[in-house]
Amino acid sequence: MVTWYLADNGGFEQYSDIPYDQLYCRDCHKPLCVNCHMVAGDSVPQSRCLGCHGLVQLEWDSHADVHQAAGMECMQCHSSREMHGDGTRYYSLLDEGAMDTTCEGCHTPLADNEYHARHGNTIDCTACHVQGVVTCYVCHFETELEEGRKLSYGQYAGWVFLVNYRGKVHSANFQSVKYRDHSFLAMAPFGAHTIGKAVRQCDDCHNSDALEEYSSTGAIQATRWNDCERRIEYASGVVPVPPDWQTALEFDFVDLDDEGNWVFMEAGPDTFQMLFGTPLTREQLERLAGQDRADRRSGWRVSR
User: I need a labelling partner for 1 at 20 to 30 A (CA). Which of 157, 203, 297, 298 fits?
Assistant: First the structure.
């Protein structure tokens, strides 16, 4: 959390001007034994994991996951070293060596099929097998500071962003926050717990709605404010992050008025941060656009 927040890293501190150690949220991220262990040396039930990692439960509420359906629990994939550390100071879970868990740790060799044969060396498992990410949209930072609680506009599911990470195309997600008249968004590689056995079809990525929008307009409206219905609409499906991501990916931000209603704030963000991973290249987008899409279905969803 500190890494992403610091102004020196382009983080939200540049707008809040509040040191991290003065934030309420710091208390949730302190590495204390009692965060997991009720009694020293006891085994940790999955309910303790989900007590902090509530996003995983939201993912399972939105998408079936093959591992959860099989009865697997967190520690069957995540190692004790990940939980307790190894003496190395990692600045993010995305640092090289910070995490042990990989799909290939269990799924080796990959199943023999045309998709793995064609994409196995260039596309990470997550890009095809993550059904979708769950995104909490527009955290209201004033509420965090004044009341010590989290408040966001809403939660979106059913979309997944694509970036480059460690030499392969990888699924991604983002967090967004507003404070006073500033809007901020941080994007990163992200492996959601929404794994499916057979998720993507060719036309889900090749000439997706978002890619077609980018090809025709030079922009992708990821979220947009519907002024008539007074709510945010958001894109669905696969959203490739283009080379000019800082200007091409467009997000409408909202704020609370004096009556507690969400209202349009601005087209943002003011700052778009990506500390890990890189956008797709022009050549990658051209390859994605090389296959016509047979199914022309609407790509917009609505959420309050």
Answer: 157
For the stretch 264-276, pLDDT in tens is 999 999 999 999 9
- CA nearest to 179, candidates 259, 245, 270: 270
Contact of 221 with 213, CB cutoff 8 Å: yes
Please indicate whether residue 120 or residue 303 has the higher confidence score (pLDDT): 120
What φ, ψ does residue 165 adopt, rounded to 5°? Answer: -155, 120
In the chain, the DSSP E strands lie at: 133-140, 152-165, 168-179, 182-189, 220-221, 223-226, 231-235, 237-240, 249-256, 262-268, 271-273, 300-303
Read off the tokens for 163: 């970036």
pLDDT tens by residue, 142-196: 998 999 889 999 999 999 999 999 999 999 999 999 999 999 999 999 999 999 9
Q: Closest Cα partner for 141 from 153, 133, 131?
A: 153
Look over the chain and give the mean of its residue pLDDT values, rounded to a whole number.
Answer: 91
Q: What is the pLDDT of residues 38-89, one digit of tens each?
A: 887 788 889 999 998 999 999 999 999 999 999 999 999 999 999 899 999 9
d(CA 299, CA 235): 6
Tokens of 154: 């809403």
Neighbours of 204 (CB within 10 A): 16
